[in-house]
Design brief:
Blueprint: H1 12-19, H2 23-36, H3 45-60, H4 64-77, H5 86-93, H6 98-111, H7 118-130, H8 134-147, H9 154-159, H10 168-182, H11 188-194
């Protein structure tokens, strides 16, 4: 109900639930915080503090569900922020924890959604072929579809080689990237790759 409002009065309650450190409730609270601050990036004191708290707590909790939700939540906070999101993206994408790197891929996707930004596309392609975590590689390929959804004709050519990957996680990412970017287009190249 308060999505993207950034209302400080609503921040503490989900944060309290998050700090109970219960997997399911913590996951929901983390996502709720991201939705509350959707697109605020580092423009407000609350969103800057939230980003720092969420990443710090991701290193403190042992619950994978909560860590994954915290990474995605950071991505939601930087949605649409493009270059202003780079410090957050850099922090998440270089983290030792693959779950936070996974969140970093979605931070790129959300910060640059629909922009066809060359540097974001190159970075996602690099991670798609180089990260040691299958989850991170899959997220990077999926994120290509979100960054390029306004240029759907580019996506089939871009992911064609990845579609032939030995890695099923990468192939999974290709299918979703094509779905995100080419939805409703009836693109023949996308259909051929999916088949």
């Amino acid at each position: 109900a308060a999505m993207a409002t950034g209302r400080a009065a609503l921040y503490d309650e989900p944060k309290t639930v998050l700090y109970f450190d219960m997997a399911v409730g913590g996951e929901a609270a983390a996502l709720g915080l991201g939705l509350l601050l959707l697109g605020h990036g580092t423009s407000t004191e609350l969103s800057r503090a939230a980003l720092a708290e969420l990443v710090a707590y991701a290193h403190d909790t042992a619950h994978e569900k909560i860590i994954r939700a915290l990474g995605l939540s950071a991505g939601l906070i930087v949605a649409g922020c493009e270059e202003q999101a780079e410090p957050v993206i850099e922090q998440l994408a270089r983290d030792r924890d693959p779950i936070l790197r996974y969140g970093g891929m979605f931070a790129i996707a959300l910060a640059y959604a629909g922009t066809s930004h060359n540097a974001a596309t190159r970075r996602l392609l690099h991670v798609a072929v180089s990260d040691v975590s299958d989850d991170v590689r899959r997220a990077a390929v999926m994120s290509l579809g979100l960054v390029l959804f306004r240029d759907p004709e580019k996506v089939p050519k871009l992911v064609a080689l990845l579609a032939e990957s030995f890695n099923p996680h990468v192939r999974y990412g290709v299918c979703l990237a094509l779905g995100f970017a080419c939805a409703g287009s009836g693109d023949n190249d996308a259909m051929a790759l999916l088949e």
